[in-house]
């Protein structure tokens, strides 16, 4: 299995993976560098994907498609990416974007895991000028990688990087799958993982704030052949620091956690010296919720107000302790894994 640690970035705005870059950095590159979306087989070496283009989107997997799922998912991606259909940027900014299908290949599976853990996050989702698109995945694997150090029985696998989102779409370079498509793909991915790895149990996490996204993941797991699984929204124990303070997306909480996981994952051209500039262009959570009902109005608001993609309160960074937040996430995840291990005995 490809090593998820090798896939995750150690520094923002470097390497071939599209999702390691911030929105602002990508807007400077996409007009002159090709972007590729690979479709490959489970276990495909990362090196086989990294050389496909200067910028590579997270892969989709042959084995996870059933029926017309591939056609419907690609149709939806083309409607969102690189910019939402019907928007001015869609018409005026040229992007060389291609789907590349590698031949289906049976790769050697890892040793049978007692618990196989992975995230289903919205990795192609802008997170402002100072954080990578894959901010959610970075946080999920920050927890999973610590768990793997504690539990020999837990194997960390590659993530699913496509889910349901709304707030990223008006800013561009974000991909939304409708909830039914998320459910279909999670079911297919889960069944494919079970067939390939023979895992005894699955532990699935995310940090993305959408309730609809989380429900779609769980529906996909319930529809799969897996009879031992647990799901956890890892930000659940952080609500008093995030949602209750109106700091939901790319604000102080996520900045603090990403910086804890890797100090070079936050763009030092922005952070912390330009914190006031970030705060000036952020959007309140209440405004984002209000605008979510009409994407056309949302897009227009983003343009006219020069919003920067933060939905929350970047100044909340100075009122939270990242180790406390990480430990809260670890506490609930640790309990989940222990329960799963007990069920496999």
Give keywords:
single chain, four-stranded parallel beta sheet, alpha/beta, 13 helices, 40% helix, Rossmann fold, 345 residues
Topology, element by element:
Elements: H1 4-7, H2 23-29, E1 35-40, H3 46-50, E2 55-56, E3 60-61, H4 69-80, H5 88-92, E4 97-101, E5 115-119, H6 135-150, E6 154-156, H7 179-197, E7 201-206, H8 211-223, E8 229-233, H9 252-261, H10 275-280, H11 285-291, H12 295-304, H13 322-344
Parallel strand pairs: 1-2, 1-3, 1-4, 5-6, 5-7, 7-8
Helix pairs in contact: 6-9, 6-13, 7-8, 9-13
Please explain how this structure is put together.
By secondary structure, this protein is of the alpha/beta class. The chain has a single domain, classed as Creatininase (Rossmann fold, 3-Layer(aba) Sandwich). The chain is built from 13 helices and eight strands. Helix 6 crosses helix 13, helix 7 (179-197) crosses helix 8 (211-223) and helix 9 (252-261) packs across helix 13 (322-344). It is globular and about 55 Å long. It starts with a helix and ends with a helix. The mean pLDDT is 96.
